[in-house]
């Protein structure tokens, strides 16, 4: 075993560089994983690096006050290999988020407020999160927080008095500030707790103002805490300096740990002492020792704090209402978009349905016209065989009536829709009278041609139509009476349809002044009448204008089933203001 282990160790000794790189990579991966786990544990985010010196930590929380970190520290202390039993008394509530805001040109923040109110914790939170961000860590703040990159960061927090070094509390603070000033490199962040403390309040306040103003003129970011009234006045009246105070509950003087900007703040030393158990006699005597000026100042600050608290409460209420209004507006906008989308979908479906009905109507009209032309040609040939050059008046009238009835049925279906058109026939169509059987007078299909049933075979019937035999499905037939029934007893409406060109028939239509839709409707009706009247070439007068009417009619004519071709008229016949249309045979 010793020989094998020695051989393995010697093998590793021969590759020191590879071992060193392996350790470096493993360390780097471990650090990255530790950063990621810490970010998840503290719900941290990546801050925005501000190039303009903006220092805005929104909703900042100190990691050591977070329940998740405390629980982790309770499980196992780094200095002890043995796990520590969690102590229930060490559990604390989640820290109250604090906003630390320094927006240029403001670079100085003076924080005031009662003792145990959270001033020092806010100071430490700002410095710690700045150092964490520059170490590549996510920080526990709200999304949108901005922070600059500092070349130097200084902190004077706590009491560093030393007997061996002959340093008092005041001299230790001054020594630290002098060292900061000597080593300052911009951009810099300076944190000073209880600036000017440890000496006479009047002189300490004056010195504190001078120190803050010195760092302000040098261009450093500085956050300081104080109880001095002179520093509160300086922060409230100096450009580039902001004041903020930690709030408290007026009834119990318990701290709220919320930073209120613009407030001069009250120290509440006597009230906090009473809250911490100081004898009432001592508290009463302390109040008696206050001068009239100090009492008036305390009352004035109390009124200012009350006004600011109310304003802050109203601001939060307005913010909540604004957020609710934004949510409501977003919901209404979404609902409006949904309704508009449904309307567009319904409109598209309706347009498609109307287009289908229109195409079906045109197809049926084309079928009627073709049938009428074929029937007219057949009857003309039959009359020619009987040495007659033209149709007799009765037969021509019958054909016209059949054509008119068929056209009216198509128009009725288009007006009422395909469903209602199938449910009820137009008023000009003879009503159904009894079942279809031999001897019944019937109309055939969309053409509306009349005949007499000779024989019924299953689902078909043989029909005699003026000497012509026709086989048609029963579903296309409608009984209108018996063969021997007088036509005078039937409620029929006969409309004359002239298949021959009439004298003075119109060969042009004028749509100048119409909208595109109105012009298309008039031209469509004109083309149908021209086709029935065997008009081969027609003219549409639309004028020059903007050309919109001409383009709309051209698009309509291009898709019309009765149009063979069309073009603008010659120059001597109207030119670009007239379109000449040639209809199909």
Number of helices: 13
CATH architecture of the domain at 45-61 and 97-289: 3-Layer(aba) Sandwich
* Share of residues in strands: 15-25%
Q: SS-based structural class?
A: alpha/beta
Count of distinct strands: 19
Gross geometry:
elongated
Write down the overall mean pLDDT.
Answer: 77
Spatial strand order of the main sheet: 6-7-8-4-9-10
Helix content: 40-55%
- CATH class of the domain at 45-61 and 97-289, named Alpha Beta
> Cα-atom Rg, whole angstroms?
50 Å
CATH-derived topology of the domain at 45-61 and 97-289: Rossmann fold
**Terminal-residue CA separation:** 110 Å
State the fourth-level CATH superfamily of the domain at 45-61 and 97-289. P-loop containing nucleotide triphosphate hydrolases
Q: Main sheet, how many strands, which sense, barrel?
A: 6 strands, mixed
Flag low-confidence runs: 85-91, 387-393, 418-429, 486-504
List the helices and strands and how they pair.
Elements (H helix, E strand, L loop, with lengths): L1 H12 L2 H26 L6 E2 L5 E6 L6 H9 L22 E5 L5 E5 L6 H16 L11 E2 L4 E5 L12 H15 L4 E5 L8 H18 L2 E5 L3 H9 L3 E8 L6 E7 L7 H7 L4 H9 L3 H94 L7 H31 L16 E5 L4 E9 L2 E6 L2 E6 L3 E6 L25 E3 L5 H17 L4 E5 L6 H12 L3 E6 L9 E6 L2
Parallel strand pairs: 1-5, 4-8, 4-9, 6-7, 7-8, 16-17
Antiparallel strand pairs: 2-3, 9-10, 11-12, 11-15, 12-13, 13-14, 17-19, 18-19
